Amino acid sequence: MKTWMKNAFATASLAVLLTGCSGARSHVIADEARYPISLSDGVRDADGKLLPDERKQVVGSFTHSYKAWGWLWRVFSFTGDHDISEDVNEQVAAAGGDAIVNLSVKSELCLWNMFTLVGLLPDCSNVSVRGHIIKAMPASGAQPGDVEASAPSAALEQAAPPAEALAAN
What we know:
Elements: H1 3-19, E1 26-29, E2 56-71, E3 76-77, E4 80-83, H2 85-95, E5 99-109, E6 123-136, H3 147-150, H4 152-159, E7 166-168
Parallel strand pairs: 1-4
Antiparallel strand pairs: 1-7, 2-3, 2-6, 5-6
């Protein structure tokens, strides 16, 4: 193989490897969410116990997407914290739900990152947040006037811990 071909191949390989480190850093938060959000399928009722599966009814899907921007291999973040509270409140209310479970955050490189000139130009990431909106169903055998039977929403909201920050890289 000729020397110029070896050099071209080495340069291209180095560029591809360095581009693989590109992307953006952003933190997903939900400080103003009025509904509980869980990364697992568990959510607590007013009594502090996990809501059993038979009392959970999936009534919709939560979706939110955004583009995060950064520079110099994620050292500087232009996006910073990204608050999903407004979308959580709107989508859960529209679905008639009480909480979001199985929340996941996925971050993928943008096509733009192939042209960032090895970190000299800003990088981006496509971030997608997904989850299941659930409704808490009344407990079987509940008596009229029971908190769980009369207001599942209130029972979950009372037990909801403050929303925690979720990280997306």
